[in-house]
Automatic annotation (TrEMBL):
This is Stage IV sporulation protein FB. GO terms for biological process: proteolysis. The chain crosses the membrane at residues 16-42, 84-103, 115-134, 141-170. It comes from Falsibacillus albus. Its main location: membrane. It is found in: Membrane. Its cofactor is Zn(2+). Signal peptide: none annotated. Residues 33-104 form the Peptidase M50 domain. The keyword Membrane applies. GO terms for cellular component: membrane. Keywords: Hydrolase, Membrane, Metal-binding, Metalloprotease, Protease, Transmembrane, Transmembrane helix, Zinc.
Amino acid sequence: MNNMMSLFKKIRIHPLFWVIAAIAVMTAHFMELFILVLIIMVHEMGHGVMAHFFSWRIKKIVLLPFGGVAEMDEHGNRPLKEEWLVILAGPIQHIWMALLMYFLNNEGAVSESSFALFMNFNMMVLLFNLMPIWPLDGGKLLLLFFSTFQPFSAAFNRVLIISLIIMILLHGSVMFIFPFQLNLWIVMTYLYFSLWKEWKHKRFVFMRFLLERYYGKKTAFRKLKPLIVDGEEFLSHVLERFQRGAKHPIIVHKDGVEIGKLDENEVLHAYFAEKKVSIKIKDLMYID
């Protein structure tokens, strides 16, 4: 009970949610507002409960007009299994909610109109959150997919670019199909702003990923993935090749011949503790 109360205390209402709520009240759509809030709450608590189960650091759960965002103080170094489960814990709530409503409708506990309204909203919130746009669940799943075989920095950049392309396509569709749907324009404005903010801070996101590997809780890596680098490569460029879920022995070459090895912790220590941000890898080996 205390754990659930601590999760509820982390819930925040985004200002855009109040805008949509005000529109719903002014147009007397009270039932629609209640159902939407209920679905969004259950969805986000799914993320929150699963994250709490894995002892993740939960910053806050923000409720938005179309869903929500469970903000974690985690930066890409948790086991992939945990990441998948935390992200999918939101969408999976829509399955049992739909089954429950089917049961209640068959038992005559809810009217046909309420049943249809709930099912429509339930599907709408689910499908919208699964769109491959950051920071929606679909965008986070896309990042997990790319980061299984790409460096974290490259995967994150790719997700933001794909998100923007899909947003532009969505924008065009709304202009032609639903040009006067104020709710959709509000939602798209938020998503555009979120993408712009993430692109602006992408370097900061990458630094947090590296810092957590260096200072954070040491997790067991699934695999060793050696990085073969030229001694002339800059340390910062080598760090951009770091991949989540993998430990990187650094194999240094000169003129195609191996001249030594470095542990990734040595490289991270040189970058963060010794502030050697602009040196070449060969300089860490004290080789001319």
